[in-house]
Amino acid sequence: MTTFLLVSLLLLIPILFLLKRTKQSKRVPPGSLGIPIIGQSLGLLRAMRSNTAEKFIENRINKYGPISKLSLFGTPTVLIHGQAANKFIFANGGDNIVNQQTKSIRMILGDRNLMELSGKDHSRVRGALVSFLKPESLKQYVGKIDDEVRRHLQMHWEGKQQVKVLPLMKILTFNIICSLLFGLESGKQRDQFLSSFQAMIAGMWSVPINAPFTRYNRSLRASARIQNMLKEIVQQKKVERETNGASSRQDLISCLLSMVEDGKQVLTEKEIIHNATLVMVAGHDTSSVLITFIIRLLANEPSIYAAVLQEQEEIAKGKILGEPLTWEDLSKMKYTWRVAMETLRRFPPIFGGFRKAATDIEYNGYIIPKGWQIFWVTSMTHMDNSIFPEPSKFDPSRFENQASIPPYCFVPFGGGARICPGYEFAKVEILVAIHYLVTKFSWKLLSDNFFSRDPMPIPTQGLLIELCSRKLS
């Protein structure tokens, strides 16, 4: 009997050792999930609004290491950062990591938008959007964007001594979106869209508690109004196509409605509405913020302003008075775009993003459990001294040869198969706007350089500037 117990014990030792080792190798990352539902959401949002979000992330890294667990916006989350983390996020084929935003974003934008889809659905919807947003298609819309920018400057900038840049840039990008993506001209319908749209985006990064008077509740109600308005536009476009044979290229919704395979529409009506809402948000916020921070930068960096002005004046001198910019003109704005890229590096509109683990995933010695969020942060590589020497210095020459920048280190538009499909659209918006701003005006800042994130960067007083009209020399 004693011998039997001894043998059993000797056999159990390696089994217990293996079980312990397996348990340790499959442990979740260190950290705390905090209070149920709320977790660390309020702490992150407070840090973003006080412009200390990077410090919030750095403190977690110093405390827990390169990977840690927390709870954000009602969901268990794993924070990862760095070049390897970016590659892990953007180069993953989709079997292990799938698109899924926070509950607040998913409920506000709709569950059939591109950021929620994976696999064949993602490829199908992305392909439909890219068919309208690719450079070959955008070439024919440069004149329309040019017209919107000039009309905006004439209405809101010319003759003014002071302006608040960010609110005006939001109006500009909203009008471009309404015109180009929805075929919606200025008037009552566009104005109704704007007020609901601003209420909708205010709660996209919020704790998803759907109670009266919460930011999340207000955004949900505004989202419902937006989607109802888009449904009406979709119905109008269907009627126009059936009765008048309207062009499929006149706007995004007409383009999406025209796509048919095997006698069936490529996108459902729900997918068209949800993705029109997504493009609306992406094109409105990111572009308006980037243009605002370029204006802020040019006020602080006279030598860079002078170089941008010189490039834009050369292009303007080659135009007949009143002649719109062309795709060829935009291709000459190389230095201006390098300034835009360096602005994106220093002040990325998107602080970070979310994915979801579709299965248990091993990463950096830990297990990210199935169903958990994965949170990555843009600025962790943008401000890494080993990637970008003197990262706090504004230096557009970093982008003279983008091939020299290590892959997955500069990610303001994402990367890999998940790179933002609206990248070229944003580029056209920004270059056209900067061309007319620098050739028509000079300016100086009347507010300090502080900004907060909500969740995108917002300068003090919306970036109040003093304007001075200038003439082409």
From TrEMBL:
CDD domains, per database record: CYP90-like (cd11043)
Short name of any one Pfam family annotated for the protein: p450
TM spans (from-to): none
Membrane topology, record value: Single-pass membrane protein
Domain of life: Eukaryota
GO terms assigned for molecular function: heme binding; iron ion binding; monooxygenase activity; oxidoreductase activity, acting on paired donors, with incorporation or reduction of molecular oxygen
Membrane recorded as keyword: yes
Similarity comment: family membership: Belongs to the cytochrome P450 family.
A Gene Ontology BP annotation from the UniProt entry: sterol metabolic process
Signal peptide: 1-25
Keyword rRNA-binding: no
Name under which the protein is recorded: Cytochrome P450 716B1-like
Top-level taxonomy: Eukaryota, Viridiplantae, Streptophyta, Embryophyta, Tracheophyta
Cofactor(s) recorded in Swiss-Prot or TrEMBL: heme
GO cellular component: membrane
Cellular compartments annotated: Membrane
Binding positions (heme): C420
Keywords for the protein's UniProt record, in alphabetical order: Heme, Iron, Membrane, Metal-binding, Monooxygenase, Oxidoreductase, Signal, Transmembrane, Transmembrane helix
Organism: Cicer arietinum (Chickpea)
